[in-house]
Amino acid sequence: MTERTKISELQAKKAVRKANPERQWGNSHGQSLTKFRAKAGELVDLFALYIEQRMPLPPNTGRGCRVQLPHVEMAFGRMNQAMRQFMDEEANTKKGEEEE
Question: What is the residue range of 41's domain?
Fold first, then answer.
């Protein structure tokens, strides 16, 4: 079993406060911040896997096989666009449900 990327508690707290400084996160029964840290790490792993899948050459095969800045930027652009589209669709769905 491969080890998952870990997000520190400090990084997690900064991230959730950045999203909404007034939002409270329950930590008594659900351990929401702990779960957030684990899932954020899974997203980091997924991003790394996506970059790997998009690489044109196998590793250690010579020129062009290293991950370069453009590879990271292009992969991030595609994943960010897909995530934003998903979030917009979710927001529109929620808005439609509230109007009913």
Answer: 9-99
